[in-house]
From TrEMBL:
GO terms for cellular component: anchoring junction; cell periphery. The keyword Protein transport does not apply. This is (apollo) hypothetical protein. Keywords: Cell junction. InterPro entries: Band_41_domain, FERM_central, FERM_CS, FERM_domain, FERM_N, FERM_PH-like_C, PTPN14/21_FERM_C. GO terms for biological process: animal organ morphogenesis; neuron differentiation. Its main location: other. GO terms for molecular function: protein tyrosine phosphatase activity. It comes from the Eukaryota. Residues 21-320 form the FERM domain. PANTHER family: PEZ, ISOFORM A (PTHR45706:SF1), TYROSINE-PROTEIN PHOSPHATASE (PTHR45706). It comes from Parnassius apollo.
């Protein structure tokens, strides 16, 4: 008869039972970082975790992206719980560490070497994927800076044209004589050998340039190119229903049309209000004739474009002193004041429930379409999904806000606090001791204070 073996069940660590989940974050260098988070962890906690592990000391330039169910890249709202966003909007629990805020006028804001290196990698990806467009000469300069930053000085004996022509990465799209050429057709048209030889010549002129200088040169050259730091969205002009592209960047909003090569640029200082109502995204300017309204594919897209404007403008106003070298702000020029309305989770849920009903809106504004010449009514503005009043409500002065805060006395250090504690206890003990002996005198004190009568010897 065989023996019956009784095996003891081992305790296995179950991630789901601990209210934790593991998420994968793709880095700019192609690596992957896995983060274990709780269901209540915010996007900022995940970003700080990844940046700390990569030794990125300036995480304020970066963000986390995901791909939504419409296969569109979207930024994570860092202040909200991460898992709820991914379960609701994302097609998969895959995140990407990317640069969210692009700088202008050099690299003075980037003081960390690791941060500058990842910023450099982001611009390389933007060039290769076609988000930044340049001509052939600019592509040669950028390729030589990239080569110097990653591999150092040029070796004449080893780095020949035949050796480098399959190793160099050129932009996906380049301008040649006013026409856009595809980077994948360079070998077929015979331009690959010519571009490789030009890169070798320019790379030789960068001899003994340090990695930091090469990265800074690469970043500065990209700042002058078309498409740098722009978030693109497809929309339609509400006035003539023509297709346009809305590009939100650090300096403002650009509107590109198919009929014109020159985009219409709305600077932040020229904008007085930005409104999102369902699918409509409106830009109101100081000059009413310059205002415009656009229709996005969905209400979620309209709200997302509005949120991008808020975040880019907030970053711009935070660093406007350092950015004033390229875009000077005169004292006479009015400065807009973005006020964030409708960004809380409860307000967004309310807007989703009320998106299909117009009973709370003014009937006139609900029936009449938005037009750049006709501003939104008060009822329509009040019940919009998101509304930015840029000029009507100036911010409260900082000294007044500080006056409302309670004042606290500075806390002493540890040794001083201990001395004060024991001095107070010693004083209280002495007082109790004195009171006790004053109330109940000792026998010796009684003898000292009592009078003793001695009998007289005389009769």
């Amino acid at each position: 008869m065989p023996f019956k073996l009784k095996l003891k069940k081992t305790r296995q660590y179950n991630v789901a039972s601990k209210s934790l989940f593991v998420i994968s974050v793709e880095l700019l260098d192609g690596g992957v970082a896995d983060c274990t988070l709780s269901v209540d962890s915010t996007g900022q906690e995940c970003l700080d975790n990844v940046c700390q592990r990569q030794a990125i000391n300036q995480p304020e330039f970066f963000g986390l992206r995901y791909v939504n169910r419409s296969q569109q890249p979207r930024w994570v709202q860092l202040e909200r719980p991460l898992k709820r966003q991914l379960d609701k909007y994302a097609s998969s629990h895959q995140l990407y560490l990317r640069v969210m805020y692009y700088i202008i006028s050099g690299t003075s804001l980037i003081t960390d070497e690791v941060t500058r290196y990842h910023y450099f990698l982001q611009l390389k990806n933007d060039l290769i994927e076609g988000r930044i467009i340049c001509d052939c000469q600019q592509a040669v300069v950028l390729a030589s800076y990239s080569r110097q930053a990653e591999y150092g000085n040029h070796d004449r004996e080893r780095h020949t044209v035949e050796y480098l022509k399959n190793l160099l990465t050129f932009p996906k799209q380049m301008l040649d004589g006013g026409q856009i050429i595809d980077g994948s057709t360079l070998a077929e048209t015979g331009r690959l050998e010519w571009l490789t030889a030009a890169v070798i010549q320019h790379h030789m002129s960068l001899h003994n340039m340090s990695q930091a200088q090469a990265e800074e040169g690469f970043i500065t050259a990209c700042q002058q190119l078309r498409g740098y730091g722009q978030e693109m969205f497809s929309a339609r002009d509400q006035l003539d229903q023509s297709e346009v592209t809305i590009a939100v960047s650090l300096t403002g909003i650009r509107v590109l049309t198919e009929t014109s090569d020159t985009p219409h640029f709305y600077r932040w200082m020229d904008i007085t209000n930005v409104i999102n109502h369902k699918r409509t995204f409106s830009v109101e300017c100081q000059r009413p004739l310059s205002s415009a309204a656009f229709v996005l594919p969905s209400p979620e897209d309209g709200k997302y474009v509005w949120r991008m404007c808020v975040q880019q403008h907030t970053f711009y106003m935070r660093h406007r002193v350092a950015l004033s070298t390229a875009h000077t702000v005169t004292p006479e020029e009015p400065r807009p004041n973005f006020q964030e309305h409708g960004l809380s989770e409860s307000r967004e849920e309310l807007d989703v429930r009320d998106s299909g009903s117009t009973s709370r809106l003014d009937p006139q504004s609900a029936l009449s379409p938005l037009s750049p010449q006709a501003p939104l009514s008060a009822a329509h503005r009040a019940h919009s999904t998101s509304c930015l009043e840029l000029a009507d409500h100036p911010p409260q002065p900082l000294p007044r806000n500080r006056a409302l805060l309670p004042s606290y006395r500075p806390a002493p250090d540890y040794e001083t606090a201990i001395q004060q504690k024991y001095q107070q206890q010693r004083a209280e003990a002495q007082i109790r001791y004195q009171n006790h002996h004053t109330t109940f005198p000792t026998p010796w004190q009684q003898c000292q204070t009592s009078s003793i009568r001695i009998p007289s010897r005389h009769p």
